[in-house]
Amino acid sequence: MDFGTQVTRVKICGITSVEDGCAAAEAGADAIGLVFHPASPRYVAPAVAARIVKELPPFVTTVGLFVNHSTSQVREIYERVELDLLQFHGDETAAACAQFGRRFIKAIRMAPGQSVVEMVKEYEQASALLVDSFDAEKYGGSGETFDWQRIPQKLDVPLILAGGLNSTNVGTAIALVGPYAVDVSSGVESSPGIKSVSQIFEFITTVKNCE
Q1: How many angstroms separate the CA atoms of 112 and 198, rounded?
Q2: Residue range 122-150: average pLDDT?
Q3: Share of the chain above pLDDT 70, in %
Q4: In this model, does residue 28 exceed pLDDT 80?
Q5: What angle in degrees, to the nearest 10, is found between the helix axes of 197-208 and 170-177?
Q6: Burial letters 175-197, b for 16+ CB under 10 A, else e
Q7: Can you tell me the distance from the alpha carbon of 110 to that of 202, in angstroms, rounded to the nearest whole number?
Q8: Where in the chain are the domains?
Q9: What is the Cα–Cα distance from 107 to 110, expressed in whole angstroms?
Q10: How do residues 34-46 score in pLDDT, each as one tens digit?
């Protein structure tokens, strides 16, 4: 299947409140991301995440983001929060990601020399790969882009593009990469962890206008 020829989906990541989650859904987001990494300014406690999920309308995919969590921590969270997908954004092995028997996304931080093709082979059980900017001190959410030309044109898995996207550059990114979906966090915020409703609407409108 040529995943790049489909309508570009949008994931709004780093949702921390019911209000922001509902605003993203109203704007037309296909998915929201809930960050369970305590070091992130977008961290959301499982109890709050569960309330966010319960308030979402149907057909909005919920994604839980984990960074080097233990097996028991991941299981405890997804048993409490109704997550549709698990997203592993740390140094998890393919076996660690697949052990839960649930659909998952593996994030690849594009460090120098990182090969997307090799990651597709290694994480063959992933439902999608998410390519993000590399930051030696952060696991995502840096607000920085990377060289999109490093991404191969045709892959055997849906590709989600992240890393420094906003309403001013996402059109160019989609034209160059042709991703299955785009993922935005800091690019639609008024401050770290606080989403801007107007920026969410502007971002999603821009993506839809690329179709």
Answers
A1: 35
A2: 79
A3: 92
A4: yes
A5: 30
A6: eebbbbbbbbbbbbbeeebebbb
A7: 27
A8: 3-208
A9: 9
A10: 999 999 999 999 9
By the 10 Å C-beta count (0-12 exposed, 13-18 middle, 19+ buried), 51 is classed as: middle
Evaluate whether the domain defined by 3-208 bears CATH number 1.10.260.40. Answer: no
Q: Map tokens 């990114």 to a residue.
A: 173
**Pairing, β 104-109 against β 159-161:** unpaired
Positive/negative CA dihedral, 46, 75, 111, 171: negative
The residue type of 24 is A
Residues paired with residue 88 on neighbouring β-strands, in sequence order: 66, 106
